[in-house]
Amino acid sequence: MSGEIEMEEFSNRPKPAIVDDKPGGRLNQPEDTQQEGSVTLWAYAATVILLLLAIPMIFFPNFLLYISESSSERRNALTPLELYLSLNSGIVLATLAIALLFNAPAGIAVQLPSANNASHPLLTSTTLATSIIALLSYNTTSVGALAFFVFLGSAIIAAWGWWAILFSGTSYISRKTGADKRTSAFIFGNKAAASSRKKEWKKGQLQ
């Protein structure tokens, strides 16, 4: 053979890809890992800044007067509307901070509870925040009809969110009875509930 064997330089070979162990994972290059670290650092920094903004709004609302008014005659207290808006804004900012923290790419291992792995990353945090806002708005009478409208909107989002957390996604089907384990026969006597189906299955086994 007249052909010459060409030697391939090792330096020109592409860097091996890192396979993601997660289902449906993609091939991660070293550059992706570096970018992931940058995003994680940004998420932590944004979390700290948002919490620093949220804490005074929730717990020390009068501090807003100190940093906002420049005249010599300062007010001693916020109006009811200002207090209400400050509290709700602080809750929203704190919710965003928590969502950023728990959804950082290489963040802490503890995850917020959710219905399944495919749920929206803001589902749980938004549902908790709107539940708190709805409860506070329901007990607020100093801002008139505004509290009622905020309560109504927040309650709808919260109720729908709790339904999605508890009942959406893949059902937990019993291998023995074929019933959904998340249903219950309590109060309404649901015949399709896991407890009822289990009793019927046991009767069939005894016979």
Write the layout of secondary structure elements.
Blueprint: E1 18-19, E2 27-28, H1 30-59, H2 63-68, H3 80-102, H4 123-138, H5 145-167, H6 194-206
Helix pairs in contact: 1-3, 3-4, 4-5
**How many strand units?**
2
Q: Please tell me the overall pLDDT.
A: 76
Characterize the largest beta sheet: strand count, sense, and whether it forms a barrel.
2 strands, antiparallel
**Pairing-aware structural class of the strands and helices?**
mainly alpha
Strand order of the largest sheet: 1-2
Secondary-structure element pattern, one letter each:
EEHHHHHH
Task: Supply the number of helical segments.
Answer: 6
Rg over CA atoms, rounded to whole Å, is 27 Å
What sort of overall outline do the alpha carbons produce when their principal axes are compared? flat
Plain-language structure description:
By secondary structure, the protein is mainly α. It has a domain of 85 residues. It contains six helices and two strands. Strands 1-2 form a two-stranded antiparallel ribbon. A hairpin with a 7-residue loop joins strand 1 and strand 2. The N terminus is likely disordered.
Provide a compact summary of the structure.
This protein is mostly helical and 207 residues long. The chain is 54% helix and 2% strand.
